[in-house]
Amino acid sequence: MSTPQSRLAELGIDLPTPAAPVANYVACVQTGSLLVVSGQLPLHNGKLFATGKLGGTVDVDTAVEAARYSMINVIAQVQAAVGDLARVKRVVRLGGFIACTPDFTAHASVMNGASDLAVAVFGDAGRHARSTVGVPSLPLDAPVEVEALFEIA
Q: What number does CATH give the domain 34-152?
């Protein structure tokens, strides 16, 4: 039987060291069996994978990959918080923020970069509710930010 860790290995993903919060908040809060993960940017090798806005300097394919990197960082935060990804019973919800111009409308396609990875890593337990919102800007000029809610065993 495959595990989230083995699926990550099959996908060639090594989880990074989780990013430290840059303001007055914590990366994760657990209450009961719920783990809330603060918004994660698309950091790759310690730097933003991309900057800019959709409908401007960032194309959809780049943003999909940015959403995937954001989800990798979400998963890294979960592992740091609970110690073992096998404790994830369910990805309950993902929230996506897409920095974009007012005329951009392909938010859902961008956020699939995070959603598809959640399902690839957690299987059926990775199927989740989701909101995706276009915003005028994000921290550090990131094109995407992903937050999450997990049920933990």
A: 3.30.1330.40
